[in-house]
Write a structure and sequence with these properties.
The complex is a heterodimer. Chain A is an alpha/beta fold. Chain A contains 10 helices and 5 strands; from the N terminus they run H-H-H-E-H-H-E-H-H-E-H-H-E-E-H. Classes of the chains: A alpha/beta, B alpha/beta.
């Protein structure tokens, strides 16, 4: 009985490996995938039957995610090619500032980033905040700014309807050092200003004081209204905390599987959102 | 079989089914800290034509169920967003009825047979408690004292809380601490950047718990609304479309499966 269960477990693991390497779910190599599976199975339960059931459930989860991905691809195709017109016309006035979080490993594929920005430019988004944890995008700043700052851009490599003219885009580049460390620097500014150089009375800080201190350090742009996350998981990866109070956070999947139609859908959905801001 | 027997059998069967599913989930690493944004009580009230405020009471029993499931599973830390500083902007009647409900439920927590004593849960009230009225503040202090000896699990109730207020408070405390240090040493010569990220993190209200692994916001809203912004750098954000009073066991299981699916990636992020 135990021999058969082990056999079954091996076949399930092999199928899982096949699904993941075949689809390339961001993990890539087999060693990575095996490390992933290994790393997970260190919980409290080492009963073989439960381990088998766990693998079965996660296999079902993986198949469901794959099916959802296929449906999203079909939906994007229909939206991009005009078969579904629910998401047009797009009221871009509500999206004053779009933030994009990209997983640092994916951000190294600069051609993918450029294609994404091409699409956003064609849609008409003007101001974009680009974030990745390690600052990979900051290193490509010149390339990106140069490409998108000229008003005349050629449409030859774009599959978008050529009557869309690309708009000039403004960028802000942000990384992990602009998050918690910036707040620490702002704290030091306030300390120097109010404690060391000020009078002996205990100062009373307000959120405005901290915001102003951050502004002095270069955080001059507004909070993003909408944040797209391009990565394997819906996680903002350390985007500056002070700036995402009421930002709508949408997970768009891995960067290499980005879809134009789904960007339109996400922006359209955002324009319909009603926020109470607590009241 | 009468109704009472049927209910008992149903409860035992559900409990057994839950134990089996928890047994399967615990094959892999489970989240150590789950946070909930309990959104949708008022919408639930409207949808079911309830009296204003009833939605919050139904929401409370959903909260108790979710806590029970989390502690049964072995999740050590659970945080809930009970009341935001921004919620003070609501009508005075609604704020007062929420405060009364919270005071009543906090008193309930201290009782012997309550869930927190059943599971050995230590309760913390997180937020700018000075903004609360005296009776709620005293009830909260009593609950924190009464559960201080519990050590199996932790419940963090965010009340009069926003992330920006927490960060500001932490900056204030860090400044005060450094100022006292300088005064003691009587030494104005010091490093230029005396306050570090670690100093600020030490003074956070949430410093009593590790960063959350999952944040679940009900009602399908995709924003964090000033909740745990500092602590959610490597946290999976879930937004099931169900309203808070309707949340159930399967939503928790879905969130945990999502967490386990992305575990390798999230752990990698924590290490960078």
């Amino acid at each position: 009985m135990r021999y058969n269960i082990n056999d079954l477990l091996s076949s399930i693991l092999a199928f899982e490996l096949f699904l993941r390497s075949g689809y390339g779910c961001g993990r890539g190599f087999s060693e990575d995938i095996l490390q992933d599976i290994d790393g997970k199975i260190c919980g409290q339960n080492d009963n073989i039957v439960f381990i088998l059931l766990w693998h079965v459930i996660h296999l079902i989860v993986r198949v469901i995610y794959l099916a959802q991905e296929v449906l999203r691809a079909i939906e994007s195709y229909l939206v991009t090619n005009g078969f579904v017109t629910t998401y047009q016309p797009l009221n871009l006035n509500r999206v004053k500032y779009l933030g994009i979080v990209i997983d640092s490993d994916e951000a190294r594929q600069i051609s993918e980033v450029i294609q994404l920005l091409d699409w956003l430019s064609a849609i008409g988004v003007k101001k974009v905040c680009l974030y990745d944890r390690e600052g990979v995008l900051k290193k490509s700043k010149e390339v990106l700014v140069e490409r998108f700052s000229s008003a005349k851009l050629s449409n030859e490599d774009s599959k978008i309807d050529p009557i869309f003219t690309k708009t000039q885009m403004q960028f802000e580049f942000v990384s992990i050092s602009d998050g918690k460390e910036a707040v620490a620097k702002a704290a030091n500014l306030l300390f120097n200003k109010y404690y060391l150089d000020g009078d002996t009375e205990k100062p009373f800080f307000t959120e405005a004081d901290l915001s102003n201190a951050l502004k002095t350090l270069g955080v001059v742009e507004p909070d993003p209204d909408l944040l797209f996350i391009y990565g394997p998981a819906r996680c903002h990866l350390g985007f500056p905390a002070w700036r995402i109070r009421y930002t709508e956070i949408v997970h768009m999947g891995p960067l290499k599987h980005k879809k134009y139609g789904l960007i339109l859908k996400a922006i359209h959905k955002y324009t319909k959102v009603k926020q109470n801001y607590g009241s | 079989m009468d109704i009472k027997q049927r209910t008992q059998m149903y409860t035992s069967l559900s409990s057994f089914a839950r134990k089996c599913i928890f047994g399967i989930l615990s094959v892999a690493t489970l989240p150590n800290h789950i946070a909930f944004i309990m959104d949708g009580n008022r919408r639930y009230s409207k949808q079911h034509n309830l009296v204003d405020g009833e939605g919050h009471k139904v929401g409370y029993s959903s909260l108790m169920s979710m806590l029970r499931y989390c502690y049964e599973l072995g999740v050590k830390y659970v945080t809930v967003y009970a009341f935001s500083i921004e919620n003070f902007k609501r009508s005075p009647e609604e704020v007062q009825s929420l405060m009364d409900l919270m005071e009543e439920k906090i008193e309930g927590l201290i009782k012997e047979e309550s869930l927190v004593n059943q599971y050995g849960v230590r309760v913390y009230f997180i937020g700018n408690l000075k903004l609360l009225n005296k009776s709620v503040r005293l009830a909260a202090a009593r609950a924190m004292d009464a559960t201080a000896k519990n050590s199996k699990a932790v419940l963090l109730i965010c009340i009069a809380y926003t992330s920006t207020d927490e960060i500001l408070h932490s900056v204030e405390e860090s400044c005060e601490e450094k100022w006292d240090e300088i005064k003691v040493l009587n030494d104005k010569k010091h490093e230029k950047d005396i306050i570090s990220v670690l100093d600020i993190e030490r003074h956070m209200y949430m410093a009593v718990a590790p960063d959350p692994d999952i944040i679940i916001r009900t009602s399908g809203e995709t924003r964090l609304s000033n909740f745990l912004l500092w602590q959610s750098s490597n946290c999976l954000l879930c937004s099931p479309s169900v309203l808070w009073p309707e949340i159930g066991f399967r939503h928790l299981v879905q969130a945990i499966l999502g967490f386990q699916y992305n575990l390798y990636y999230l752990n990698k992020q924590k290490q960078t």
